[in-house]
Fold this protein.
Amino acid sequence: MRFSKLLSALALIGILAAGVAAYLFSVVQATQPPLFNPPTNPYARGIYAEGIVESTQASGKNINVYPEVPGTVKQILVTEGQLVHRGMPLLLIDDSVQRAATEQLRWQARATLSLLEELKAEPRKENLDVAQAQVEATEAALKTAGDTLAKQQVSYEMDPKSVSKDALDNARNAAAVAKANLAVTKKQYNLTKVGAWIYDIRNQESQYNALLKSYQSSSALLSKYTLRAPGDGIILSINTTVGSYISSQGAYDAYTQGSDPVLVLGTPQTSLDVRCYVDEILVPRLPPASEMKAQMSIRGSNVKIPLEFVRIQPYVTPKIELSDQRMERVDVRVLPVIFRFDKPKDVNLYAGELVDVYISE
């Protein structure tokens, strides 16, 4: 009896639950409005193009900064979003080896310059005084030898037995040697007096100039270890860190497994450019430059901004600019068209964003 009552109770509960579920599922939920509308063509006849926002430059592109020398990043002196001026240091590369080589060349150049100045300063007074004293000493020795010879000759003429033939010959030889020594010391004096040989000076000048040029070249290379701003602008991106290795190819990106520019500079973003890539099959439909009108839609929003035509880059290229991966296989070729717009104050928009652009035919 109790079991049948229990079954009846469970059946009633099941019927009630089914009724409630049927009611809940039968209620029609109101459709949620979309957060933003998809981009639409505002023109009766319009050409769609994918665009990328860039800072305003003479070339229509951001400035990619690469070092001219490879090395390890020692210090980063700027931050993203910072305003910089032309010539301002941005990044330091470890220059310890190059600095030591430059210092070595500097001291070698100084040593050769000192020797060159020494040659040009000749004759040195002290050397000239020594040469003069040597002349005077040899003159005195010649006089002594001459007097001795004269006395022995007089004695020999008076009495041949008073002086031996051998002693007389020795006196004559001593006088001749003294005369020759005097001639040598006079020539040495004259040589000292005229100073360094012109060919020695020229040779030393050549050595100094060669080392000076090497030092200047090494100093110029040393300055390349400080990466400086090529112009006024804003740091848009820093793609390296302290301790990382960089080269003229840029900095290695572990995500894309490619190379990125070490830094990217742009202009102050009161106005921005949009580089649109028009598919080559749509290029014949482009209107003349004087009639060019376009509108940009910012993805993820309902914001639409009219664009001002700047110019066409008259060269059709493979469509690799959006990913910047040179190893990418691309079969589509596009024509770059550059537009400009004033950045709205209440819209978050940055260089590098992809946007949708419609160009009126």
Q: What stands out?
A: The CA atoms of residues 93 and 151 lie 87 Å apart. The domain at 64-93+226-266 is CATH 2.40.50.100 (OB fold (Dihydrolipoamide Acetyltransferase, E2P)). The radius of gyration is 47 Å. The chain has a mean pLDDT of 85.
